[in-house]
Design a protein that fits this description.
Mean pLDDT: 89
Helix content: 25-40%
Number of domains: 1
Number of helices: 7
Low-confidence stretches: 205-213
Number of strands: 7
CATH class: Alpha Beta
Order of helices and strands: HHEHEHEEHEHHEE
Shape: globular
CATH topology: Rossmann fold
Radius of gyration: 17 Å
Largest sheet: 7 strands, mixed
Distance between the termini: 35 Å
Structural class: alpha/beta
Length: 213
């Protein structure tokens, strides 16, 4: 996870990723009432901008100043405001219990660094709020397509469950491997992602979760 390498990658292409939001994020949060959202590892801003377009008050964090410059331009072109924050996720500490939605999408770190980040992300979730973690699953190395080829930075749903263990009031409500269709020069291929959704209970045991599902 090298800042200058990502700066170069973002500088070398108009958009490294699609301008459209990640489809799994859309599926998981589309029915939530908008509130305060934190996008950790926002890159070029596609997910943060999608949330802002739907009324969320979004803070988006990334360590690439080039990526954030592109995100700001895209947000301006689409007529939304996002609080863009340049910071390294390995040391960034968001305010605790401050966000109704916290997302970590395709952020890959070695095990202990990942665990620390996931736990800080969970601590930032407000009562009744949601944490969404999505990334390339470890099984993608042998059974899927694309993604990082370093097994030390890949994870499974069970790894994220373990990362969250012992955090008071946080419960995992979904933990799955999900298939993502990728178009290649050789035709369609399947990539395998790990998806974990967790919610923080409110102090009222009868409080309904923010999810409409």
């Amino acid at each position: 996870m090298d800042r200058e390498a990502w700066n170069q990658r973002y500088a070398d292409a108009e958009l490294v990723w699609s301008a459209e939001a990640n489809r799994f994020l859309v599926q998981e949060v589309a029915d939530l009432p908008p509130g305060r959202a934190l996008d950790l590892g926002a890159g070029e801003g596609r997910n943060a901008i999608w949330l802002a377009e739907r009324g969320w008050r979004v803070t988006a964090v990334d360590f690439s100043d080039i990526g954030l410059q592109k995100a700001r331009r895209l947000a301006e072109a689409r007529g939304v405001e996002v609080n863009w924050t340049e910071a390294d996720l390995r040391s960034y500490s968001p305010a605790q219990s401050a966000f109704d939605l916290v997302v970590l999408v395709y952020i890959h770190l070695p095990g202990e660094e990942r665990r620390a980040l996931v736990r800080r992300a969970a601590d930032a979730v407000a009562a009744g709020g949601m944490l969404l973690v999505l990334g390339h699953d470890r099984s993608n190395l042998e059974e899927g397509y694309g993604g990082p080829q370093d097994p030390t930075i890949l994870f499974s749903p069970d790894d994220i469950i373990d990362d969250l263990a012992g955090i008071e009031e946080v419960r995992v409500v979904r933990a799955d491997r999900v298939m993502r269709l990728v178009m290649t020069d050789d035709g369609e291929r399947n990539a395998i992602d790990a998806l974990v959704r967790a919610e923080r209970r409110s102090s009222d045991d009868d409080h309904a979760p923010r999810s409409a599902a």
